[in-house]
Amino acid sequence: MGALDIVLISLLLLSGVVVIVSVLLQHGKSDGLSGAITGSTTETYFGKANGARKEKILARITIYASIVFVALVLIVYVIQSEGGNIITPF
């Protein structure tokens, strides 16, 4: 495993974790059944005033991290298909 392999795999793992965390921190678009039972509120984890701004930032982080993740997956695939054996299945 060369230095490029280690860097690409590390970046791939990091971008995957960023996507997962940013998705989990986002507030859902609808409250669903819990909103019908307990009453719907516009308050998010970040508070009432800063909620909308923070949600936009999280949405952008999710989009950019997803683009980086997909690009890295494609790069790893191209390198692997050229015989670079970046990831061996067994």
Could you please describe the fold and organization of this structure?
The protein is an all-alpha fold. It has one domain. Helix content is about 70%, strand content about 0%. The protein contains three helices and no strands. The chain is elongated and about 50 Å long.
Descriptive key words:
90 residues; mainly alpha; 3 helices; 0% strand; elongated
- Identify low-pLDDT runs: none
Number of domains: 1
Count of helices? 3
The CA-CA distance between the termini, in Å, is 14 Å
Overall helicity: over 70%
Strand content: under 5%
Question: Over all CA atoms, what is the radius of gyration?
Answer: 19 Å
What is the mean pLDDT? Answer: 78
Q: How do the helices and strands follow one another from N- to C-terminus? A: HHH
Structural class: mainly alpha
In one word, what is the shape? elongated
